[in-house]
Amino acid sequence: MPTQNLVETHNLTKQYGKIRCVNAVNMQVPPGAIYGFLGPNGAGKSTTLKMILGLARPTGGSITLFDVPVNEKNRMKLLAQTGSLIESPSYYGHLTGEENLRIIQTLKGCSEKDIDKVLKIVRLQEARGKLVNHYSLGMKQRLGLAAALLGFPKLLILDEPTNGLDPAGIQEMRELICSLPGAYGMTVLVSSHLLSEIDQMADHVGIIRKGELVYQDTLESLHAHSKEQIALRVSHMAIALDLLRQDGIEAVQEGDYLLLPMVDDAYVANLCRQLVTQNISLYRVEKREKSLEDIFLSLTGKESSL
Known about the structure:
single chain, alpha/beta, Rossmann fold, six-stranded mixed sheet, 11 helices, 15 strands
């Protein structure tokens, strides 16, 4: 039965000794998406991606790529439609950028014309004849991306592709990644521990914490969790709650504040007048919005390092 997802994992698990690094992960990556795989360092992101790519053997569960369950017989055929950049890129420093790509192009069996195309995409045409040992870190990252793009795979898997880059390099890498689905019909699965990066790149997101997938949906749905509220601090909570409920407003008490859903300015002004009329002191009125960072911390645990 078709899954309508380019990548699916089913209870994917990886255990090293007594330590379970990935625990029953059910990932769903739709075709044409930029799927941001987000979580603190050590949460299990790289291990999950390595299992999808066949670089680590799962302890349990299964993987489906391109609507086909992955097994030993078809793994190489399915992975031929996949490009990847896991951790830091590998290269021969004593060879030029073009020579490095030519080796990978030969191994992949794709067209020589792809070398010119990918060099143009990652903006390394002018450095193609330069020894990779003389490349900057950003250039090496872009060369790694170029290697992953050879053959123009249906699926591109990138593990922390902006690691170690300066702000200009991060911006450049982000723009490259964002252009791939529209320009080449690729699906991109990209991991990061930086919420701001995923927020600017992805349209779908999966959040992993201590090996468990704690959230998976569109980025739009994640943003929807950051609802705006009005917070009131008054001298008599019970009376203020009664007034709100008489108006059909569902409010909740949180610490010293009453939290109510967003209402228009006219209602807030009228509510303040009613409270003062009933000799209730109004100490504070403020608008609150749970930030995306707050949501991420609540899902991954405040003790986790970002």
